[in-house]
Amino acid sequence: MPENVIYEFLRVATHPRVFPQPLRASEAVHFLDGLFCVRNFQILGATDRHWESLRGLVTELGEPSGNLFFDVHTAALMREHGIRRIASADNDFAKFSRLELVNPIRGDRV
């Protein structure tokens, strides 16, 4: 899981304007602790190839802007680590030619 997605989960899960009863930070972290029990779970962080990945994605997308850069960051981390499939309901990931988007809400198979 890209590290920025972990922080986004923490931001949303604890936000009082998103949920009437948001998780406390300790509850959200405890939820994430469960992911570390999954055999092949790992956090994807930036490598020394990050700038190259980011630059390539900006070129491929042709001037992305605004909120799309959250997805660009995720895609850059995935590219650095050789991951080509993402499970997300965010259709903006379809803009990345080297990513296969699987939407679990529609029932796509992972």
Structure description:
- The protein is mostly helical and 110 residues long.
- It has four helices and two strands, in the order ααααββ.
- It has a two-stranded parallel sheet.
- α3 packs across α4.
Number of helices: 4
Strand order of the largest sheet: 1-2
**Shape descriptor:** globular
Determine the N-to-C terminus distance: 15 Å
- In N-to-C order, the SSE pattern is HHHHEE
Number of strands: 2
**What is the CA-based Rg, rounded?**
15 Å
Are there runs of 5+ residues with pLDDT below 50, and where? Answer: none
Structural class: mainly alpha
Mean pLDDT: 94
The share of residues in extended strands comes to 5-15%
Largest sheet composition: 2 strands, parallel
Q: Percent range for helical residues? A: 40-55%
Concise structural overview:
The protein is mostly helical and 110 residues long.
Notable traits:
110 residues, mainly alpha, two-stranded parallel ribbon, 2 strands
Present the secondary structure layout:
Layout (H helix, E strand, L loop, with lengths): L2 H11 L11 H9 L16 H12 L6 H13 L4 E3 L12 E3 L8
Parallel strand pairs: 1-2
Helix pairs in contact: 1-2, 3-4
